[in-house]
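User: ok so my PI wants both of these folded by tonight, can you help

Assistant: No problem, let's get them done. Here's the first:
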Amino acid sequence: MAEHLSFLEEELVGLPDTPAAFKPSQSQQVSALTRLSWISAAMGPVDTRVLLLPFLQSYQLSRRESDEILCVLAAQWRAVARGVVGVLKADEEERERRLSLLGSADASARRDESAAVTRALGEIAGALEPLAAKEEKCIRDEAVTSLLYLLRFFPDFRSQQAFAQRFLLPIASRLLHSDSGLFFSKCSAAKLVPALYAYAAPAAGQVDDGVEKEKTEQEEGRDQRPAASREASAPEEKRVESEDSDLRRPELNLDRSELRSLFEKLLTHEALLVRRDAAVEVPAFVRHWRRIRDQTRQSACSEDAAQTLEEDPQGLGDFFLPTLKKMIADTIDFLRAAAVGSLLQLALLFPSASSQTFSASAVFPLLSAAVSDPSWRVRAVVARGLAALTAAFPSQFASQFYPCLQPLLRDSALRDVRQAAIRAVGEIAEVLPADEVSEYLVPLVPQLLQENAMSPAAAAAGVLPVVAPPTLSSPLLCNSPLLAPVLEVALPVARAAGAASAQTVLASLALLLNSREESHVRMTYATRDSERQRPMGRRRDPERIARRKRARIRKKRS
């Protein structure tokens, strides 16, 4: 299969005697990298591990200054990983066999092949580590995605945990402790740590029973092999033992408590981007934990592996809650926005229950302060999250969310805050009962229509220059861009309310239709005519529709 590698080398670096002016351009190299899956499938898993991996590693080192190539290569390492495992051209039965290869193997031949594939995936992880520390954000994101993608090739939790503790957790530790003077590696570590948290050791000094059992089986398998086979694999075994000794270094072998402590340091790091990325990723601890726990319970894994994840991850919300509350009082607005967004996500992940240590009631008092925040970024986060909060906690709408919704509907940031709040009204109407919609949301619709619909005289005043930014008491701009969102929200609110309340909304719409001359108002109103009829009780009769269809069919036949 060397001809396939020669073809790829010619596309990426050119022939040795090719003049510099005729070397492959950057766009040609990017196009060639997108075909790595074809090359890996044609070469097969063995040649991909032996020939293609070293070539791509050296090629990556030679293109350290080309961000576009590195970004594509960081994503294409996933295709190379599929080629290493051998699932690109395999049928369904062969694909299942290849994927189960990385699980607990009994036969010595399968164990040797599984070890070779695992080492190759570890080499791919090592090639992705410097990409995760690059300055360009797209390269870092693709590298982190590819690093976590490697766990998909392992069929059970034990094999995933062994690979994560051997390769991925040390990479995350090195990114956390990087002393290069730049903070970009810590941004990638902030995304890796929550995803790998469930695979770390539960406590310091506690050795995982599954890993010890796997090591015992490997030692027994090595003793049962022939002498020639043991001598041939002796150098490789020494290299694996040296890697295991490196993992026993305290700065690399991290448990869950140490990961939480290191992540909390990221939340208070001097670099603002590190603090923001860490704050955004706080809910990912719970999401990844629950995803891995559900996968472990659904798969036919051992009971001890399932018990490892039985601990309730709700302590994660309590652990970072004080730091997030401090970040809300920060002077940087995008840090406050990230903290508020994480708190809202935590509230959605932990619905209120008496048995839970973390309750959403700890987040609700912070909403009023976020609504009155001087930065529109923070207020926009609350406006975008009100609908989801109401869907999760409908009983708290009247006491907690409705007081926050009212000032957001009059916010001075038209497109970023007020438009999100207006659209939230329509989404909230779908989850609230009809009586609450009639009491709280229906009175808002005529006010919104009146505030965002200006007369022609007021529209003529819009040509005057703006000498000061708008405030809460400032008049709305003429020809408001929010009129269309209000029209889109009015009809869903009327449909969710009762018949009497729907008449109020429809009367306001009819008044607006008669007083405005703009075509887009009439068009918006006309396109939703069918929805407008539903709250009035004049729903379409299925039998009448069927009779009309039969009449049309008879007319065509005649």
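One down. Here's the second:
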Amino acid sequence: MGFAVMTMTEAAASRVKAIVENSGPDAKGVRVGIKKGGCAGMEYTIDLVTEPDAKDDLIQRDGASVWVQPSAVLYLLGTQMDFEVTKMRSGFIFSNPNQTSACGCGESVELKAADLAELAKQREAAGAGV
């Protein structure tokens, strides 16, 4: 079995399922991607999926489906998707090891592509400890 590009928390899975349930019978899940924009250079995107793309990576948890756009994979490797509710806002939160900075408002981020050689070393070290 391979590894997931990213993971999602129970709260994120619950919110994705609620979005799908409230979006009609054609909704299948959400697609996560990135686009250029904002003062820090990049923004996360989340869109409803009615027609899954076979090229996207699929992450599932507790019946929730999240697809990751191929162009975003190197920027999202190792990311955890969460959903947070506070007094001031609610929304998806991305804990991304490839994020180098964020703007003050938190709407945009600076991302670097994942270091695949370093990732391979970490996976090898984790496998040696088993």
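The radius of gyration is 15 Å. The helical segments are 10-21, 73-76, 116-128. Good luck tonight!
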